[in-house]
């Protein structure tokens, strides 16, 4: 049996129809897809922001489904249109497009609830989910009932307040050809840059996003905590570190990663790294573990002689472990 990617390979992307509406071919002016209606299941930060942006660009918002009436009503107010629901009803299928924007762990449950309505409601619908890590294969039961499925993941952090500002941002797409075609036009209509991925690459794509967002935030917070521990006020620490990080990222954009690389490892100043490790050994264990891991990662992705740098870093760690054992034995 062919997988969805194999089925879609080699197919010409021609205009299609969903519920009598002509689907714009790839590359057409984005507003050509705005006659579509959309229902949103799971109107949290992502669902609310995308819903508001689509509504502002001419999309008709149908059902807005959340877990309770108060959150559903708030979501409708935030989006500026739609009808609040606490359960998935047939009203969801008044729209040609259904956007599932729930946590990854809840997608299977939503799929089961949608599948229960059967082929009569699902045939011809385009069903999208906004997960970054999961592919459209989690929607396969809906495909079997005649729906076209795909994933639409904006590479953006959402506040849930106001519209989604996706101007120039990447949106990762994958799935069945008609779903990808509509998603691409939808992304362009939001001012974003659509990129089509293979289904199998979604977890790696999302790992990159997690490193650049959530992990960077954890590193910044750890650095702030270290400055606080030496007597600097928290606000002062944050205001001192943020410009430093911004400048490095600006240099990376302007000059490239190797030219922007800074710090003792970039200079080969291993005595400073040893001093860092000694100081961090007095902090919670995760600080030293993360510091060593980050140095190793930097050596792998930034150094021109990664094996030599990694060997030297291992020597420093081994020496530190040896010194710790010696101190413990003499105590």
Strand arrangement across the biggest beta sheet:
5-4-3-6-7-8-9-10
* Count of all domains: 2
Q: Report the structural category.
A: alpha/beta
CATH topology of the largest domain: Rossmann fold
CATH superfamily grouping of the largest domain: NAD(P)-binding Rossmann-like Domain
Report, as a whole number of angstroms, the end-to-end distance. 67 Å
**Largest sheet at a glance?**
8 strands, mixed
The top-level CATH class of the largest domain is Alpha Beta
Helical element count? 14
Give the SSE order as H and E letters.
HEEEHEHEEHHEHEEHEHHHHHHH
* Rg, Cα atoms, Å: 25 Å
The CATH architecture of the largest domain can be named as 3-Layer(aba) Sandwich
In total, the number of strands is 10
Shape designation: elongated
Strand content: 5-15%
Q: Quaternary state, please?
A: single chain
Textual characterization of the structure:
- Helices cover 51% and strands 13% of the residues.
- The chain is an alpha/beta fold and 331 residues long.
- It folds into 2 domains: 194 residues, 3-Layer(aba) Sandwich (Rossmann fold), CATH 3.40.50; 118 residues.
- It has an 8-stranded mixed sheet.
- The termini are far apart.
- The N terminus is likely disordered.
């Amino acid at each position: 049996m062919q997988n969805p990617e194999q089925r879609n390979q080699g197919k010409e992307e021609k205009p299609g129809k969903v519920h009598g509406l002509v689907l714009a071919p790839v590359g057409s002016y984005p507003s050509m897809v705005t006659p579509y209606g959309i229902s949103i299941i799971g109107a949290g930060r992502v669902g609310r922001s995308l819903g508001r942006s689509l509504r502002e660009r001419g999309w008709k918002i149908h059902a807005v489904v959340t877990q309770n009436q108060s959150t559903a009503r708030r979501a409708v107010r935030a989006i500026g249109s739609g009808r609040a629901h606490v359960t998935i009803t047939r009203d969801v299928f008044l729209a040609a497009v259904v956007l599932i924007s729930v946590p990854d762990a809840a997608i299977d449950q939503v799929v089961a609830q949608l599948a229960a309505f059967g082929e009569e409601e699902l045939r011809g619908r385009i069903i999208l989910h906004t997960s970054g890590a999961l592919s459209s294969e989690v929607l396969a039961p809906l495909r079997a009932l005649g729906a076209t499925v795909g994933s639409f993941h904006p590479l953006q952090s959402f506040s849930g307040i106001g519209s989604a500002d996706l101007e120039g941002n990447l949106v990762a797409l994958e799935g069945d050809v008609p779903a990808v075609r509509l998603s691409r036009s939808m992304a362009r209509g939001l001012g974003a840059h659509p990129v089509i991925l293979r289904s199998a690459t979604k977890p790696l794509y999302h790992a990159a996003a997690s490193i650049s967002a959530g992990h960077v935030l954890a590193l910044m917070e750890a650095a702030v905590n270290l400055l606080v521990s030496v007597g600097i006020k928290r606000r002062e620490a944050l205001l001192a570190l943020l410009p430093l990080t911004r400048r490095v990222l600006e240099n990376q954009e302007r000059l490239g990663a190797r030219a922007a690389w800074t710090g003792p490892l970039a200079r080969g100043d291993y005595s400073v790294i040893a001093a860092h490790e000694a100081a961090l050994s007095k902090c919670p264990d995760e600080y030293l573990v993360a510091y060593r891991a980050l140095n190793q990662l930097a050596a792998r992705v930034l150094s021109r002689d990664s094996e030599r740098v990694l060997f030297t870093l291992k020597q420093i760690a081994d020496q530190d472990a040896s010194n710790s054992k010696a101190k413990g034995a003499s105590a």
